[in-house]
Structures are given as structure tokens and as C-alpha cells.
Amino acid sequence: MDREKITLSGTQETMLATLYGRALDSRSPHSVLGDRTAQEAVERVAYDFGKTGMTETTAVGIALRAKQLDDWAAAFLAENPKANVLHLACGLDTRVHRLAPSPSVRWLDVDYPDVIDLRRQLLPQPDGSYQMIASSVTEEGWLRDVPDDRPTVAIFEGLTMYLREEEAKRLIQRITERFPSGQLLFDVYGSLGIRLQKMVPAVRNAGATLHWGLDDPHEVEAWHNGLALLDAVRSVDMPGMDAMPTSGRIGMKVMAHLPGFKDVGRILRYRF
Ligand SMILES: C[S@@+](CC[C@H](N)C(=O)[O-])C[C@H]1O[C@@H](n2cnc3c(N)ncnc32)[C@H](O)[C@@H]1O
Q: What is the pLDDT of residues 144-182, one digit of tens each?
């Protein structure tokens, strides 16, 4: 079978790193996510995954971040069986396969057109009320077409750091103004993470640039009346760190005690 050639660069290319992280995790006997579909997708592309700089430790980190967001999304869907899911900057993430939502859930996977093209070729089409949307999330059009009749959870993993603060603010305001209620589940870099971006091989080697860093998650609450922070989990202190190799676990423990470094990244849950 011919493998798909990759012509992506910059921000779009970075989704191959997170895909590879989940694939590496799936190969472990103690896999966090058990995402075999990610491994199958990796086997179908012609790409030098060494470029991502992914290690056993960072792969577990990617899987734990995804797991935290999966768990929050699953809890939201358990409480709101008839909901919209806006999965923004989906890349080649198989979240819809992992969560396997009921047919009463309307699920949208949104990313740039070249990423969605690749997604169509590489990933199986899930059942249910599922749609892929080929658009920048900062474009106004795609959201106007989403029915505003139900609670909505927006999940955006590995996106905010590629946006400028004004773009992130506008996106969050458009979502919170449109739907009657819901949650926002996303990760952020802190300002130190943004300053150290060249140390992240997946970002550096793809030629991507990070912009927005957030040090105080409460700042976002002021962007919409009724927007409230429910949870903030530090990336250096995520549940399930035991799955990391010992050296990685020790590194995380050290970082968790260093001012600045402990806030290098967070996973956030808000309600509105
Ligand atoms: C680090 S990857 C994360 C992909 C996926 N969420 C995951 O965890 O595997 C960054 C993703 O953000 C997408 N992205 C960045 N800016 C975007 C924008 N303005 N609109 C849509 N997608 C965007 C890229 O195309 C890429 O798929």
C-alpha cells in the first residue's frame, strides 16, 4: 500500500507530533489511551516521525493531556446526552472514536482544509451525527451553520498557543454567545512556555510559531458574563504521571516545584 505523502508545514504539521505521541503510547503495555487508530494512521503516512522529537516521556504527556480532556468531555456528554461537540483544531485526533458518542450527539471536527483532506484519507468515518469542517476556526462562517439549540462543549487541544490573544478571545466569545450553555475544555501554555518555544522540537522543526500564553486562567472569565473556571490542571502535575518512565516522572516533579516552570502549561475546564 502506498503511504500518504505529507506536504503540510508550520502549524498544520505539528498535528503529526501529537498523533505520533498517541501512537507511541498505544504501543506500550501500560498505554494510557489505547489509541490503536492513531497507530494505524501513523503506518499509513510517509513522514519522518523522528522530526517530532517525541520521546517515551513526552508521548505519555500527550496521552495524559488527551485523557484528561476525554474524561471531561465524557462527563459533559453523560450529563447532556443531546449536545453539540465542537472539536476544534482536531488534526488527526481520534477523540470521536475514543469517546464513541451516542447518535444524539452532534459532533464537528474542525481544522484547516489541508488537514481535513488528510483526515478524510487516513481515518475511518465514525457513525452518528458527525461532520468535518474545513476552515480556520477564526473564520466567522462555520459557527453560524451550527444549530444553537443545545448545550455545547468545545474541546480544543493544542490550539490556543498558535492563536494570538485577540483571536482566542474572539473565538471564545463567539462560542459562549451563541449557545445556551456548555463547557470549554482546552490547554494553554504559560508565558514561559511561549518564551521557550524553540525548545519544543515539534514546534521548531515544523517551523511553527506560538503566540498566546496564559498565566492566570481566571483572566478568561472576564471575557463572557457567566464564564467560570471549573478546573485547572498543571501539565507537570497531571493525573496518571505514574505511566511515565522514572526519569520523566522525576523531571516533572522537579518542574512542579520550580517557580515559572510549574505553570509552563495547563489544561482548563470552564462552564458558561
Ligand atoms: C498541535 S496540533 C493539535 C492537533 C490535535 N488537536 C491533536 O491534539 O492531535 C495543532 C493543530 O491546530 C490546528 N490549527 C492551528 N490554528 C488553527 C486555526 N486557526 N484553525 C483551525 N485549526 C488550526 C493545526 O492545523 C493543527 O491541526
A: 999 999 999 999 999 999 999 999 999 999 999 999 999
C-alpha cell at 198: 524553540
* String of DSSP letters for 18-53: HHHHHHHHHHSTT-SS--HHHHHHHHTEE--GGGGT
Per-residue pLDDT at 1 exceeds 70? no
If one residue of 15, 122, 235 were mutated to test the ligand 1 pocket, choosing by the most ligand atoms within 8 A of its CB, it would be 15
Residue from 95, 114, 138, 159 whose mutation best tests the ligand 1 pocket (most atoms within 8 A of CB): 159
Show the cell assigned to 7: 506536504
Distance 15 CA to ligand 1 centre (A): 6
Total count of residues recorded for the chain: 272
CB-defined site of ligand 1, < 6 Å: 11-12, 14-15, 18-19, 89-91, 93, 111-112, 115, 136-138, 157-159, 162
Domain ranges, ordered by start, for the chain: 64-271
Question: Quick one: the chain helix, strand, coil %, rounded to 5?
Answer: 50, 20, 35
Q: Are the C-beta atoms of residues 81 and 105 closer than 8 Å to each other?
A: yes
* Residue nearest (by alpha carbon) to ligand 1 atom 25: 12
- The domain covering 64-271 belongs, at the CATH homologous superfamily level, to Vaccinia Virus protein VP39 (3.40.50.150)
- Distance, CA 189 to ligand 1 centroid (Å)? 14
C-alpha cell at 181: 450553555
Rounded Cα gap, residues 233 and 237, in angstroms: 7
User: pLDDT at residue 2 above 90?
Assistant: no
Strand partners, 132: 109
